[in-house]
Design brief:
This protein is mainly alpha-helical. The protein has helices spanning about 1-5, 10-35, 40-50, 65-70, 85-95, 125-130, 155-160, and strands at about 110-115, 135, 145, 165-170.
Length: about 200
């Protein structure tokens, strides 16, 4: 066998590489099973409930980091403006706590959208790097614009603009996004059974 490997150097190289790959694959497989880090499944569930806009308005660089902070650091669950009160209610239901109101520091009056004054934009591309959802298009030394259907209204692009040509405006109400506000009627229950009438 040794003489065969010596006489055929290509075959000996293939055998050596094959045996090394099997050896290192076995070591890595063993290490992956033996040293596996168990993560908290609630962090993954919380991250799924968050809007995944990665906007940073909660004070954390991404939704997964905020979910981890909620579970490990007992961070408040009401610091996600893009998710709004519906996300707070869903997180509170998952954690089995009473849902608080939205943090007043993070409250936005309504859905917002970024707007770039294209006459002042000189194409520095700082806003392109700041946008977590790639809602800004443009090129270096060229005009940029916002894709309004993709913009989450996080406002991270506003502070990065050196010419101050980015502003946040309320989302205009159209027939596609208008919602009928139903009046809220009190639910009357019968005194005997607590069942709605």
């Amino acid at each position: 066998m040794y003489a065969l490997l010596i006489s055929y150097p290509l075959l000996s190289a293939l055998v050596a590489l094959g045996s090394l790959s099997v050896l290192f694959g076995g070591v890595l497989g063993f290490a992956a099973v033996r040293f596996r880090v168990e993560s908290n499944p609630i962090v993954a569930q919380l991250s799924d409930l968050l809007p995944q806009s990665q906007c940073g308005q909660c004070g954390y660089p991404g939704c997964a980091n905020y979910a981890d902070a909620i579970v490990s650091n007992e961070e408040a669950i009401n610091k996600c403006p893009p998710g709004g009160q519906a996300t707070i209610n869903a997180i509170a239901e998952l954690l089995g706590i009473e849902p608080p109101a939205m943090d007043e520091e993070n409250v936005i009056s309504g859905p917002m959208i970024a707007y770039i004054d294209e006459t002042d934009c000189y194409g520095c591309t700082k806003c392109l790097r700041a946008c977590p959802v790639d809602a800004i298009i443009g090129a270096t030394k060229m005009m940029h614009t916002v894709i309004d259907t993709d913009c989450t209204g996080c406002g991270l692009c506003v502070d990065t603009c050196s010419k101050n040509c980015i502003a946040m405006y309320p989302v205009p109400v159209t027939t596609q996004n208008w919602c009928w506000e139903l009046p809220e009627y009190p639910v009357v229950t019968s005194r005997a059974s607590n069942v709605p009438c």
